[in-house]
Write a structure and sequence with these properties.
Layout lengths: L2 E5 L2 H12 L14 H12 L4 E8 L2 E9 L16 E7 L10 H14 L6 E4 L6 H9 L3 E7 L4 E8 H9 L5
Parallel strand pairs: 4-5
Antiparallel strand pairs: 1-2, 2-3, 3-4, 5-7, 6-7
Helix pairs in contact: 1-2
Length: 178
């Protein structure tokens, strides 16, 4: 599977994103009660933020997943850990489907990581998933993330984890990723 990326267009993509982020399977995205205007507003704010970016992952030109990248020195994790130069924060969401494809989500996280590390300034990816989100912990581990510790964010108890470029390349070389 080959994915491409494009910036989220808050006006054009809000309706699609609304169906994704409010679905019961997207509970960890914490937008279950958001209306379409709330989603449009949230992604308009991200589009205007120099430290936070939302991208759609496309498969054959069609939206297949959502990815956000952010600077953890300025967003999300400010004051919760000591950021290092080259740190980039990441979230991703694979929407539910009636026709699941085996290995798709692992292919998505691999594409996200490859995309992030295409930036030579990116040295380490930082994630902070909910401690109870065991499925994403397994995916993170598969691409090289190493948990550091639990942290308390305003929204959740999170598992702060890191993946350096070298850890990702090692995981990829082992054939762990798709």
């Amino acid at each position: 599977m080959t994915f491409t990326f494009r910036p989220v267009d808050p006006l054009k993509d809000a309706e699609l994103l609304h169906t994704w982020v409010t679905h019961p399977k997207a509970a960890y995205w914490m937008m279950q009660d958001a209306g379409p205007e709330d989603v449009k507003r949230a992604y308009t704010e991200i589009a205007a933020d120099e430290h936070h970016h939302a991208l759609l992952g496309l498969l054959d030109g069609e939206p297949a997943f959502l990815m956000e990248k952010y600077d953890p020195a300025h967003r999300e994790l400010v004051g919760l850990y000591e950021p290092e130069p080259g740190d980039v924060g990441m979230h991703f969401l694979v929407p539910p489907t009636d026709t699941p494809v085996h290995g798709f989500t692992r292919a998505v996280i691999s594409a996200v990581m490859t995309h992030l590390f295409e930036d030579p300034a990116a040295a380490r990816v930082v994630v902070e998933p909910d401690v109870s989100n065991k499925a994403v912990h397994a995916l993170n581990e598969a691409v090289g993330f190493v948990p550091e510790r639990e942290i308390q964010t305003p929204e959740k108890t999170a598992l702060l984890s890191f993946c350096t470029r070298e850890q990702y390349l090692t995981a990829t070389a082992r054939g762990v990723t798709v």
